[in-house]
Design a protein that fits this description.
- This protein has 245 residues and is α+β, with helices and mostly antiparallel strands.
- The chain folds into 3 domains: 69 residues; 55 residues, no CATH class; 86 residues, no CATH class.
- Helix 2 crosses helix 3 and helix 3 packs across helix 4.
- It starts with 7 loop residues before the first helix and ends with a strand.
- It comes from Rhodococcus oxybenzonivorans.
- This is Integrase catalytic domain-containing protein.
- One of its GO terms (biological process) is DNA integration.
- Keywords: Plasmid.
C-alpha cells in the first residue's frame, strides 16, 4: 500500500466545507469530496477524526484552530515506525538484487529504474515508482557519480584557459552587414579574472590577435595556455599527444 502525505490545508478545507454555511443544509461527504478534490473515504477519515477531537457541526470556522488540525493529522497519519511505508519494507528483501541491477552484471549494462520496476513486478513486488527510485538512490547506489578529484590550481599568473563562445550578431562597421560574432574568452586559472576578445572568425590569426590583446590587458604573458581543443589551435585532439595547428 502506498501512503500519501497529509496536507494541512486539505484537512482544513474539508472540515470547513463540512461545517457548512449557517442557515443552509450541511453538505454530504460526496459533495465535500468533490469540492475539495479528495475521495469520500479520505473526507470521512478527516471528519471522524475531527469529531473525535471534539468538533461539532454547530461550531464555527474559528474552531478549526491549530490544535484541532494537529489532532486530526496525528489521527489520520499512517504509522511509520521506521520512517518509511510498507512499500519500502518490501524492497528491503530485494536490496541485493536491486544493487546488482543498478551496478550491472557481467556484460549486462546497468538497468533503469523503469526496467527494475518491471522485473520486480514479475517477482510479485509491486511498489510505486517514486518509492523505488528513492530506495535505489539511497541504498543501492543508483545515480551515484564517480568521486570528483579536485585539482590544485597553479600559482598566480601561471595558467590561463582560452576558448571560443558564440556571442550573437553585430553590424560590421566596414561592410554595414550583420555578421556572426564570437567571443574569445581568456580566464586566469588562479584568480578567474577574465578578458574577452571579439572576432568575426575562429581562425589561428584571430586567436593570435586575441592573445596579443589579452597579454596587454593582463600586463604579462602566462606560462601555460590551455586552449580546450579549439580547432583553430588543436588540429587533432589527443589525451597524450595532441597535434597543434
Amino acid at each position: 500500500m502506498a501512503f500519501r502525505e497529509v496536507n494541512v490545508n486539505e484537512v482544513k478545507e474539508v472540515l470547513r466545507v463540512w461545517l457548512g454555511v449557517p442557515g443552509s443544509r450541511p453538505p454530504g461527504l460526496r459533495t465535500i469530496a468533490a469540492h475539495c478534490g479528495v475521495d469520500r473515504k479520505t473526507a470521512r477519515r478527516y471528519v471522524e477524526a475531527a469529531q473525535a477531537a471534539g468538533l461539532q457541526r454547530s461550531d464555527g470556522v474559528e474552531a478549526l484552530d491549530d490544535g484541532l488540525i494537529g489532532a486530526v493529522i496525528e489521527a489520520v497519519r499512517p504509522a511509520r515506525p521506521s520512517g518509511h511505508g510498507s512499500a519500502w519494507d518490501r524492497l528491503l528483501g530485494f536490496e541485493d538484487q536491486i544493487t546488482a541491477w543498478v551496478a550491472g552484471e557481467g556484460n549486462h549494462p546497468p538497468l533503469t529504474i523503469t526496467k527494475i520496476e518491471t522485473l520486480l513486478a514479475r517477482q510479485g513486488c509491486v511498489v510505486p515508482y517514486r518509492t523505488l527510485h528513492r530506495f535505489a538512490t539511497e541504498r543501492c547506489g543508483f545515480g551515484r557519480k564517480d568521486t570528483t578529484v579536485r585539482i590544485v590550481d597553479g600559482d598566480p599568473g601561471s595558467e590561463c584557459q582560452i576558448d571560443f563562445g558564440y556571442l550573437g550578431y553585430l553590424t560590421d562597421p566596414e561592410t554595414g552587414r550583420r555578421r556572426k560574432v564570437h567571443a574569445l574568452i581568456f580566464t586566469a586559472v588562479y584568480s578567474r579574472h577574465m578578458f574577452v576578445w571579439l572576432t568575426y572568425s575562429q581562425t589561428l590569426a584571430a586567436v593570435i590577435a586575441g592573445c596579443e590583446a589579452a597579454w596587454t590587458f593582463f600586463g604579462g604573458v602566462f606560462k601555460v595556455l590551455i586552449p580546450d581543443n579549439m580547432k583553430a589551435v588543436v588540429a587533432e585532439a589527443d589525451a597524450v599527444n595532441p597535434r597543434l595547428s
